[in-house]
Amino acid sequence: AQIDRPFRIAVVGSGPAGFYAASRLLSKRTDTCVDMFEKLPVPFGLARYGVAPDHPEVKNCEDKFEEVAESPRFNFVGNIDLGTDLPLAALRPHYDAILFAYGASQDKKLGIPGEDAQRGVYSARAFVGWYNGLPEHRDLAPDLSSGEDAVIVGQGNVALDVARILLSGVDALKHTDIADHALEALSRSRIKRVRVVGRRGPLQASFTIKEIRELLQLPNVAFDPIPQDIFPPEDFVSRLPRAQKRLMQLFAKGSANDRTTSPKSWSLDFLLSPDSLHWSSTHPSRLTHARFARNELDPADPYSPSSKVTNKYSSDGECAMVDLHSSVFFRSVGYKSLPLPGMEDLGIEFDAQRGIIPNDGFGRVRSPSGKGAPQELPDGSMIALLPGLYCAGWVKRGPTGVIASTMADAFTTADTILQDLTTRQVDQSAKSTVLGWEGIKSEAVGQGLRTTSWQDWRRIDAAERQRGQERGKNREKFSRVEEMLEVLG
Ligand code: FAD
User: Fold this and answer.
1) What is the ipTM of this complex?
2) Cellular location of this protein (predicted)?
């Protein structure tokens, strides 16, 4: 039967996954309406608060998201932390489907003594949030002036973002949308040497060519050569896939800047596992060095991307250790998603091990312990699903992948929702009136929540651009929620 009411979807999170899914849902069917809920008063998730300020072209996706928000069938509800400010179960009666796209709000830890220190030790997530004006990390005040040596543990692109921001110099950053408080602290930074340290070898690092090249080309910054014996033999390198071969060639070539004349330098240090952090005996709040255990690659399989490492032992049975000077230390070993409070009330059992919402790979949320609607997977196996519940982005597949892969993933989930609607896996006729946000608003307002609309974001956006213009930047973000709300009066 023809249903004459719209199909209402709640999207939790306004990062790339939420927006790309909304774009697909709205464009493929004209009877869909999307309410997008966001914890912060402002949209765009890691496109705004993760992507480095000196990579403005990556933020072009926000133009697309602005277009999506033009739709009269799109509604933004910001400044509402779902699960905390409002129970998730309150959404259920008012939507045909709920799509979780709330990303990864924590970071993975190293599990070494000292990493929870108040000073000198930071997660890359917090540091990135701090320089990008994320309210949660506004007051991080990283110690960049106690000494000259920074150590970053982790060998992925986020580690390279941190290294580049530490080494670039404020002249290269002052016209970007980097937060003013960060620019000011970086102008006083004494950091001269940055080490990007990994557990495994060059073949196992997960950098991309563009990010490595950028660091190698930074003016006045030299690259410490990588010891030759760490590279695979040349005939092996020549047979590698193109991107990997190019990366090995870049590592070997290094930068044109001379170590003796460059005021700053950086290095890639391989085969080291963090062991402990150490502070000055005379200034106990001052970090002096990080201790690492030396590793060796599995001799049976040293060059495979998945090669494992073991600690290296000397002939007398001692584990070989190395100390690296470190006045500031960053861990950059990945982000982590957490369950939202009250998810279990919807029947969701978060997979804490993998840090994802269990799903069928197409975005349908799986039911724990086999209860729920049975569904056949393409391989013929049967799984149980929670009808009307979906996930996309980092909370669906884990915190890896760039915006392009997040887009592809969000499209898959949106197509799944549309398919379920067509095949009546999501049965619109089961509920006669479904009001979406209109049905919940009074409860939220009654609790004193001050939500923000897309119009509100426009006003904040305009005020940020104005502040930026006054400083010769394209934007100066408000880095406190109260400041954002003040703009709205
Ligand atoms: P997110 O972008 O994290 O969005 C999730 C949103 O949900 C956030 O806005 C969050 O506030 C909101 N939220 C969380 N909890 C709640 C709640 N309870 N209620 C309501 N809302 C909630 N990719 C590139 O292509 N190029 C790059 O240069 C690049 N740089 C990166 C740099 C860093 C430091 C990081 C961490 C990632 C980078 N990426 C880059 C990857 C890219 O940012 C991700 O692929 C993408 O943002 C993941 O999208 P998402 O929507 O799943 O999560």
Assistant:
1) 0.99
2) Mitochondrion
